[in-house]
From TrEMBL:
The keyword Magnesium applies. Mg(2+) binds at V542, H544, V547. Belongs to the ATP-dependent AMP-binding enzyme family. Catalyzes the conversion of acetate into acetyl-CoA (AcCoA), an essential intermediate at the junction of anabolic and catabolic pathways. AcsA undergoes a two-step reaction. In the first half reaction, AcsA combines acetate with ATP to form acetyl-adenylate (AcAMP) intermediate. In the second half reaction, it can then transfer the acetyl group from AcAMP to the sulfhydryl group of CoA, forming the product AcCoA. It comes from the Bacteria. The modification N6-acetyllysine is found at K614. This is Acetyl-coenzyme A synthetase. Its cofactor is Mg(2+). The gene is acs. The keyword Repeat does not apply.
Amino acid sequence: MAEHHPQAQVHPVPDKIAKSARVDRERFEELTREALENEDAFWNRIGQRVEWIKPYSRIKDVNFDLDDLHIRWFDDGTLNVCANCVDRHLDARGDQVAILWEGDDPERDEKITYRQLHDRVCRFANVLKRLGVGKGDRVTLYMPMIPEAAVAMLACARIGAIHSVVFGGFSPDALAGRIIDCDSKCVITADEGMRGGKATPLKKNVDRALSNEDAADRVDSVLVVRNTGNDIDWDADRDHWLHEALEHVDADCEPEEMNAEDPLFILYTSGSTGKPKGVLHTSGGYLAWASWTHEIVFDYQEGEIYWCTADVGWVTGHSYIVYGPLANGATTLMFEGVPNYPDNSRFWQVVDKHQVNIFYTAPTAIRALMRGGDEPVRKTSRESLRILGTVGEPINPEAWEWYYNVVGDGRCPIADTWWQTETGGILISPLPGATDLKPGSATKPLPGIKAALLDADGKELEGATSGNLVLTDSWPGQMRTVYGDHKRFGETYFAAYKGRYFTGDGARRDEDGYYWITGRVDDVINVSGHRLGTAEVESALVAHSAVAEAAVVGFPHDIKGQGVYAYVTLMAGREGDEKLAEELIQWVREEIGPIATIDHLQWAPGLPKTRSGKIMRRILRKIAANEHDQLGDTSTLADPEVVENLIENRRQV
Ligand code: 6R9
């Protein structure tokens, strides 16, 4: 039975947008039909977005069955991703700005044309070669949001090296783990990064990561960008300044011919169990999907200024700051700073300063800015804006309406884009010129995307209903494997439902076929749009000598979407007080990084367990959310008193 949900206000496609859109309603219908009726023609259309060195003859070779799990697209074609993003544009738009960089300090910015980008990428690539980096080698990037981050990614792609970008907010331990997992021989970093007027000690963190012997054994060189110019420690055998290394190279660097299925990058992401997984994306299909979706979802038009506020440390930065926009010859704005520095108007000042047309951000940023009221927005013009976008977590209808009415002055369609690190690019989203909007809904799957909702037994549900979101078939941007662990790839994504990719998300579909993503159904918390595995936080906690056991759950948080709630059982004889709570919170931040900041820590003399010893997180989630009157079935609890104690001593949030 369909549940009852109040009918949200529908915002129809504005006439002005519909008239000029790359995809209008009719075109959307055509594409959707083609994808169903003539699959090869449709996917060939996507494949043709890439400039191939040797054209492909095969389109798709996919099997989702565990015993022969493989995903290949355009797999006899060859290309170079960097050449597609840079060289390809030199004739038609060599003097157009490719990367428009806006510093944390409002006085600092930089415009890099496609020709200049080509020069910088080629030189950077030659530096990597001189350091002995070649095709197939892994390179870890730990960078601030400066142009060199994008240049380094493209330089890796140019020589066929596989980049693994680690977000600059991750701790030295987390960085070391990722360096070891993919066996990186080179690390690229900067002396420091600047955000909101504060410096982050990136090089110092790299030094600390490499004090881990396993990591140090693998890395022969650390390439350092001089950014803030402050003093850093130096290991003359290992460390190289980029600006010095650049003096020894020229700007000639032929792009390496790569197979469509050669790896492009690894990006680590949190799952419900174990250590973070190295999500592997390959070259041809990934690029084709990033490029096509960037064009149709944002209705990108020649000459427009496009701004995605993500960090390149996340997949959104990979696909929608670097690869998608540059493949399309767009001007992509890269912002070093934060939304509230120097003040709450910063985003909109940047929009006015650079005449931004398309703006893509996260619900958590919108909610934080909404708290600051309308005035910081209203005092700016924002007239250049045409299209808005969001990504990372469900957007609540209040935040959606504020974004639409206040930021967009009721004029700009919002693309609420659902996708994942694993999907490489957007899969469910409205198209500005084709889809009527319902606030809070990511609307419909893109043409070619076969989404379905399943019940717990794997039965496909029809019509208006709720269930677990799966994709029943592949698309070119899909991840190919977990780096170094193909078995885990199968177990994580294809074991729950035979022959289908399980997203880990739950969703509702309404009577119009619109999808409403309800969030993760596994043990992953979405904090400000960033994924955090509860298991990761738990293992960090139990690594502290005072902690016997820990259970971590998410709870609703006004700004972050979800906050982190930790239940901690101490070793016998240890007393839980404020000081120890602070120490544990700090401990976890140091183990994982500031994203893993526990919002509430409760001392738990015992944890609710089933008789077989499984922690009943469902109950812990209810207590954290202050919904202990809705605990549900508690009949399998080994010791009901444990729950009473937790409710009684729950922290007032
Ligand atoms: C791109 C990105 C993926 C998870 C995903 C889902 C949540 C992302 C969303 C959304 C509702 C949206 N998510 N976009 N939920 N509406 N528009 O965020 O990748 O960091 O791997 O996170 O984020 O839960 O499964 P990633």
